[in-house]
Amino acid sequence: MTARAIRRWALIHRWSSLACTLFLLLLCATGLPLIFHDEIDAASGRLARAASAPGSPPAPLDRVARRATQAMGAQVQVLYWKDEEPGVVHAVSGTGMDLPLDMHAAAPLPPPDRQGLDLMGAMLMLHSRLFLGLAGYALLGIAGLLTVLAVVSGVALYGPFTRDLRFGEIRKGRSKRIVWLDRHNLTSIATAMWLSVVALTGVVNTLEDPLFALWHAGAPPVMSHSGLTIPIQQAFDHARAAAPGMIPNSMILPGSPLGSPGAFIVWVHGDSLLTARLFQPVFVDAASGKAALDPGFPWYLTALNLARPLHFGDYGGWPLKVLWAMLDLVTIVVLGSGLYLWWSKQRRSQTSDRQHDGSALTPEPAA
Amino acid sequence: MNRRRAGFTRQWGWPIALAVLTCLGLLSALIGEAGGWRAFSWIALAMPCLMILRHIWPQDRR
User: Which pTM was predicted?
Assistant: First the structure.
């Protein structure tokens, strides 16, 4: 690599890194507890527990929806189920209220501990959109792309900077700056692939709302629209029959902005570890009850489904979560050492003007 | 030519190995739980962390 090329890569690396470092520090700090959100939820009493005995027949969904509407004082628009809450069904109102109910007795359950909910909810809001709504998504998406640019330029610089060194060599008896340069090189090259994957899947996650809106705008229209509506339970049964072997995850009632005016949408997923990540909608005509698995499910929502686990690291048991946390901490070291290298370079070029500029841009000779 | 290739392997051998292991580890946990896929993903993704722990303190040249 020529000296000019090195300078150019160094410039790209410096500015892309500086632009995303503060965002990344925030994301690493808020992401750390989010890795363990399942465990924290369970420990802080956030999960609802069913009161009735398992094995009793579930109540018709119409009764569940009626009781939930009464209890919340607002029309139910969405029903959903959680794997980790057996015997519980959640009802969501148009105003965003979320009420857990006993699936068998159709009775409202005590709301989960609000404090734990609010703390983890705040973490998630900060991590996913900085409390800024759509603008936050856009900002974090750009920060993710800058992160990838910083990784690529960093890998390009790794060659000239470590030419005369063994892998992972931290030079002894050298200045503090050299020691941290070597540590920066070691920690960043070892985690470059992981950080790239997490950054790119994070960028895909920031596109969740626009991608979903895109699909929703082009979702298949319903066949008839007579105003008559079949019972919720009947629509649910038809959806299950149309998607044999699939597990229902949520049901969007007609009239919800997430759904369709003339149809129920039941989101189902497979039961193997891989297909459990792939959600698909079943459309049930609200008047005729005719149900069909949407065959034209777009690839970009499948990509979104796969990007989620690869970003969260919650798909391979607790050891994977622990490794995710360690890699998160290593990323903080990468960011911190990078900041230190930039700061010490600034200070050095200020204190000694006579020194040849760009000493940090050209490889330091190895001892 | 041979010396250049040896230099490349010395410098890029571990970085490339760790990148490939990371990819395989991320994918294998996605494939399945049974048949050691999960255990493999733990080992593969632990390698970058272990290599960092092994090298992070200054050492003498061997």
Answer: 0.84
